[in-house]
Amino acid sequence: MSLRLSTVILPYRRWHEGGRAAWTRAEQLGFHTAYTYDHLSWRTFRDGPWFGAVPTLTAAASVTDRLRLGTLVTSPNFRHPVTLAKELISLDDISRGRVTLGIGAGGSGFDATALGQEPWTPRERADRFGEFIPLLDRLLSEDAVSYEGDFYSAHEARNIPGCVQRPRLPFAVAATGPRGMRLAARFGQAWVTTGNPKLNENGTPEQSIQAIRGQAERLDDICAEVGRDMTGLDRVLLTGFTPDRGGPLRSLNAFVDFAGRHVELGFTEIVIHWPIPDSQFAADEKVFEQIAMEAPAQLR
Prior knowledge:
The termini are close together. α4 runs parallel beside α5. Helices cover 39% and strands 17% of the residues. The longest helix has 22 residues, at 205-226. It has helices at 15-28, 53-63, 81-94, 122-141, 178-187, 205-226, 252-263, 285-298, and strands at residues 4-8, 33-36, 68-74, 99-103, 144-148, 153-158, 171-174, 190-193, 234-238, 269-273. It has 8 helices and 10 strands. It is globular. By secondary structure, the protein is α/β, with parallel strands linked by helices.
């Protein structure tokens, strides 16, 4: 299978002041999927413009035809499975079946406290995630769902007519630990990683490759444990958070070298951030577009 090259378009621009243009250009450049972050605010962008993921993707669906669309990632930090399912089914319908849900356990950033709650511990996040995904899977696959859990409930929740994609839209599950990887193996159509966060500041690219290889091998073992065919689970690398940082976007050759090393680890999709000036995602737009148009053919 050829490598799929995708992008992340952060929702920081007004739709009619550059937002729309990025999504339509992503389709013109041939990206497989264009994702956006599903946060209420994020890191250094907190005190500037930031728009909602689902409305943004809905607008993107209306101005594109072939480009897949998705979140990278949605989390339980401020989402509930019942309301999220309704929004996703609507988005899948509007896009005519082009939605992928990237989903993870969430973190301790601004989203974790925006609703007034204390941030959950890593174990609490994992516990909630372990209940969130199976319930969301049912809500997107069944016409009516009732459920009483430790964290989430649904009472005769109706989701008719369901997703355009059957039995439901695909999940891309972000996980680095064993509990999350088991959820990816059980419910995911793809597994997502950003690498080992402990290496991002002071590690080397070589150490990062070894760490990601270890993650992939653990996923293989977990798939074997649960009886999941590994060949049916895509592997997605979200770039920008490994020690390489923006290095792979410096030139076409640098990207092909970077991507090739990860393709050798079994990755089927690599996601690069749409350039944002004066940010950690700054990059030369001409080089970015050259990578989008030329790199996939060199990585077949």
